[in-house]
Design a protein that fits this description.
By secondary structure, this protein is an all-alpha fold. 84% of the residues lie in helices and 0% in strands.
Length: 97
Amino acid sequence: MDSADWTVTLVGSVAAICTTGAFVPQVLRVWRLKSAREISLATFLVFAVGTFAWLVYGLFIGSLPVIAANAATFALAVTMVVAKWVYDRSPVAASSP
């Protein structure tokens, strides 16, 4: 791998860490509060589908940063969808103001 390829991979990896990492605080907040009222189910469903498509794209082109970032982000998006479904149906969430 020459330095140009290494630089491209490094930039992709930094971007992947930042964009994927941005979802972690939201997932942790929903998990701690046991509430996903403020989360849009439609947004996270569409986002999960898009992330899965990027994951498949990464597999096709063999790009490790694209694969790793989108696998992790897809897992976080699915976690949010499941949390939304579970917490919005719980009696505690239904009785909260």
